[in-house]
Amino acid sequence: MRVGVIGLGLIGGSVAKACLRAGWTVYAHDVNSRVIEQARVEGIIVDTTWEQWIQDVDQIVLATPLNDVAIWIPRILAHARAGCTIVDMSSVKGIFQSLYAQIQPPFSLLSLHPMAGKEVRGFEHSDGRLFEGRSCLIVEFEGIALDAHLVQQWMTVLGSHPVWVPWDQHDALMSLVSHTPYLISAAVLTLAQNADNTLPLWPQVVGTGFLDVTRIGASDEELWKEILKANESHIRETFAQFAQLIHEWNDQIQRGEWPKALKDTASIRNRAVSKVAPPSSPTNG
Question: Which terminus of the chain is more exposed, N or C, with fewer CB under 10 A?
Answer without folding.
Answer: N
